Predict the structure.
Amino acid sequence: MFIKALLIDIDGVLAIGGVPIPGAAEAIQWIEDQGIPHRFVSNSTQRSRQQIAERLNQAGFSIPADQITTPVVSALRLLEEQGISACRLLMTDAARSEFSEAGITEVQDGAEAVIIGDAGSGFTFSVLNEAFREINDGALLIALERDRYWMAEDGLTLAAGPFVAALEYATGKTALVMGKPSADTFLSASAMMGVEPEKTAMIGDDIRTDVGGAQNAGLVGVLVKTGKYSDRMLEDSGVKPDMILPSIAYLKDVFG
């Protein structure tokens, strides 16, 4: 298997709840020392790229914000292409700020698009019902991600996916997905590094979103047994990883 570049998930691969995976910082430093092209691809929509970078740096990493790809970046590109500026935003204040800084106006009525990220406890009946009405009236439904769950400090936690699915079911419309497992996420990240998809490996802890999504886009899928990984999820997924590692700390043993 000839790999020239790496895409690396963050939550569950580098750290869990701000606590680094043992050996992860050393693995990233080794990648840097070897000059291997790489980017960090996260589906996190709770924090801005700058906040993600700062959190990682506090955990012992040295990762600049511009090396991190998030669904917000893809969504802003889509809004620009579509000429959309008035949106209803279901997400955290941190993610919302990135849209505001890019010139997107948040509206409560007459939205051209409803954009859903991870809003956590903000997903109330009232909020979802208002979004349902906007989409039913013609607003574009955009999902920053549709992960089923993620590994928080206190255990597995619902992500945006279940709420996106609820709105799809209610409106009969299919969301445009910006983050993993959308093929565009993997392909655009590979293109940024100037490396062919088949020579790029995606390293993640989510068998469906990270590994399955990457393989469907023509990349190599590497699964790590940290974060949300479980034997049961692997068996039930029907996805066969190209490689399985105990953790990203073992990367050097494979690619060194």
User: Anything to note?
Assistant: The chain has two domains: 1-70+180-201+242-256, 71-177. The chain is about 40% helix and 20% strand. The CA atoms of residues 8 and 40 lie 5 Å apart. The two ends are 12 Å apart (CA to CA).
